[in-house]
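Hey, sorry to bother you again with one of my protein questions. There's a protein on my desk that I can't quite get my head around. No rush at all, and the record is pasted right below.
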Amino acid sequence: MGNFLWLNWSGGGNLPPSLGIARVLTERGHSVTFAGRPEMVPRVVHAGFRAIEFKDSYAQVDRYPQGSFLTRAGCYLTSPAVAAEAAAIVAAEDPDVVVVDAMFPAALSEVPNFGRPAALALHTFIFRQLDMWRQMIARLDGMRQHAGFGALPPLDVLWQQMDRIVCTALGEFDATPVPGWEMLRHVGPVLENEKVAVPTALPWPDSDRTPLVLVSLSTAFEQRSVEKLQRSLDALGGLPVHVVATTGGIVRSDELTVPANAIVLNYAAHDPILQRAALAVSHGGHGTAMRSLRNGVPMVIMPGLAGDQPFVAAAIQEWGAGLALASDTGADAIRAAAHEVLTTPGYRLTAERLSQPLLQCDGASAAASELEALIAAPATAKISAKKPTGRIECLAQQVD
């Protein structure tokens, strides 16, 4: 059996699918340890995995451009202190395979020094937005250089050095592949619920035929927007629907004016809600969009701050499974879009058609198989890692 070390960026759409793949690996007898920023640790422990905290996550944050929602994230994702700590954790843990999040250039820059097989985990489309990914990594590197540190390699170098790229999107939903990415494997979405997302009883009986609308606008604190959520509630408050809004714990219900036809929950399992839903209003996260499609639910999407979300929104509209709006769309326009999707059967029929390939794939199992194939495989890295010095003291051990 193998030991996997996951160098993680715990963004809203990144950690749940990573945990889903880890669950399958452990069910097959392997061990998985996650290493990441402090915010990641309790979520990983709650899921039942061993967690290591990057102690230097924000050690150099004072040197980064201040006043941006990306300041702390940019420091964690790119700083030399984090890169050095990533190398130290790998050396001490001595895993068979290292898995690195696609949005973690500090860790990716150290892959040639690991001396063992390494895989990249990407939890959304790649080819639909490859130029965007390049720009995002360049933007993060620009923050690093503004802090006075040397430049990191560009995306194509960081990603193409990997033994495997595991992309948790359907290949048939992505754009046409381009040459040079033979290490890429599309495995399909991993739609894992974190343990905090539990089935929740709704105040309306199953026999109630009033259309149900799910509102979910990200669980990443960097994308927190009370105002955007309030506009969505105001829009739907004017329609003959029931509304369930989940906030992922980043917006409190007492920050909102909740209309009479709505309830607001911190966390809830989305599948039971979507099985009843007629519409999902979301931020365009790949996981939320694919979960909605898997349940045959059309969407109204207002992209958030993550770079892939406008591309996910555009794809949903291109396929005819919903409408894409600007992030700052007002309540009246949101209401009109929701009304159109709810009253035009074609959107629902298209979403139901697109659900079929999603129902037929098991992204977590396919991803786990791709990672298993790397155990004992020769690493592409040309520089040997330092001799292990013993396992890193973790902040929290695996729990039942």
The longest strand covers residues 31-36. The chain has two domains: 3-189+362-372, 212-359. The chain has 14 helices and 13 strands.
